[in-house]
TrEMBL record, chain A:
This protein's encoding gene: thiS
Pfam families attached to this UniProt entry: ThiS
Residue spans crossing the bilayer: none
Protein name: Sulfur carrier protein ThiS
InterPro entries found in the cross-reference section: Beta-grasp_dom_sf, Mopterin_synth/thiamin_S_b, Thi_S, ThiS/MoaD-like
Family matches, as SUPFAM superfamilies: MoaD/ThiS
Automatic annotation (TrEMBL), chain B:
Residues annotated as binding 1-deoxy-D-xylulose 5-phosphate: G152, A179, G180, N201, T202
Superkingdom of this protein's organism: Bacteria
Domain Thiazole synthase ThiG, first and last residues per copy: 3-244
InterPro entries for this protein: Aldolase_TIM (IPR013785), Thiazole_synthase_ThiG (IPR033983), ThiG (IPR008867)
Protein name in UniProt: Thiazole synthase
Keyword DNA damage: no
Pfam families: ThiG
Catalytic activity of the protein: [ThiS sulfur-carrier protein]-C-terminal-Gly-aminoethanethioate + 2-iminoacetate + 1-deoxy-D-xylulose 5-phosphate = [ThiS sulfur-carrier protein]-C-terminal Gly-Gly + 2-[(2R,5Z)-2-carboxy-4-methylthiazol-5(2H)-ylidene]ethyl phosphate + 2 H2O + H(+)
CDD domains, per database record: ThiG
Length: 65, 252
């Protein structure tokens, strides 16, 4: 299944947002997630199902002004 | 007092654009700032180093919604920031135009209302417009952050009369000058005018020596605040001798 992760097309076998984070070996506690423009809290990632073409944002703390 | 938090330092410092993570860390320490602004982005090369600095700085973190151009985007970003940084504080920026980086006051009020209702403690980046300020307070904001000048310009307080009017109009609301400050003298001016704090980034990060500039800003903010508390001399049009006339010798 092809999804859009942080603006780039990505092929994944993950069924949920939690699976995607595990698949990509991301630190689950130091990222925040959104699916199709909606915030998905950490506790809801395992229930957040990915569909083909899903737009996923996985964000980290960064410098800011 | 910002949402019940009393700060010793009245300088808030941005963390972007420093030449290196090490310089950023030193600049935070030299400035004395107890609040630093941060953002959320897609993971870059230096993400891990930045997280270490955040943990080591001991400063309170104020996440921003920089780059958001709509209320919906800003609200989602704020929700993500709250989870990631573990704070209800949010520096709410809703940008109206990519060139001027001027806030969109309509979307700002809309986002502020939604976030305040959701338990956020909102620091809205706004203009000196008094009515927008009133709407933001009515939405639930307990702090206002008027710009000094457009972000990154270094022009200082571009509309000092308007800002003075804002200070007078909202005597009991914490007001933070956010954006546009280029020199310590401008930060001191804001503090002398009675603003509660100054938030800046570029003027320190892009200085020839950011650590020394951070120290200079810390000192200027403190000097300006002390001057305000001490009671400044009102300007007057006519000269007034400071040395007493009484006892002057007659030599001519």
């Amino acid at each position: 299944m092809r999804i859009d992760l942080n603006g780039a097309p990505v092929d994944t076998a993950a069924a949920t947002l939690a699976d995607l984070i595990a698949e990509r070996d991301l630190p689950e506690h130091s990222v925040a997630t959104a699916l199709d423009g909606q915030f998905i809290p950490r506790t809801a990632r395992a229930q957040a199902r990915l569909a083909p073409g899903a737009r996923v944002e996985i964000l980290s703390p960064m410098q800011g002004g | 007092m910002f949402y019940g938090v009393d700060l010793t330092s009245r300088l808030m410092l941005g963390t972007a654009q420093y030449p290196s993570p090490h310089v950023l860390q030193q600049a935070i320490a030299a400035s004395g700032a107890e609040v630093i602004t941060v953002s959320l982005r897609r993971e870059g090369a230096d993400g891990a180093a930045f997280r270490e600095i955040l943990a080591a700085s001991g400063a309170r973190v104020l996440p921003n919604t920089a780059g958001c151009h709509s209320a919906v985007e800003a609200v989602t970003t704020a929700q993500m920031a709250r989870e990631l940084f573990g704070t209800n504080w949010i520096k709410l920026e809703v940008i109206g135009h990519a060139d001027t980086l001027q806030p969109d006051p309509f979307a700002l009020v809309e986002a502020a209302r939604s976030l305040c209702a959701d338990g956020f403690q909102v620091f809205p980046y706004t203009t000196e417009d008094l009515i927008v300020g009133e709407y933001l307070l009515e939405a639930g904001c307990e702090v206002l952050m008027p710009w000094g000048a457009p972000i990154g310009t270094g022009h200082g307080l571009r509309n000092p009369e308007g800002l003075r009017a804002m200070r007078a109009h909202f005597p009991d609301v914490p007001l933070v000058i956010d954006a546009g400050i280029g020199a310590p003298s401008q930060a001191a001016q804001a503090m002398e005018m009675g603003f509660d704090a100054v938030l800046l980034n570029t003027a320190v990060a892009r200085a020839g020596d950011p650590v020394a500039m951070a120290r200079a800003f810390g000192a200027a903010v403190q000097a300006g605040r002390e001057a305000h508390d001490a009671g400044l001399l009102p300007p007057r049009d006519m000269a007034h001798a400071s040395t007493p006339i009484l006892g002057l010798a007659e030599l001519a």
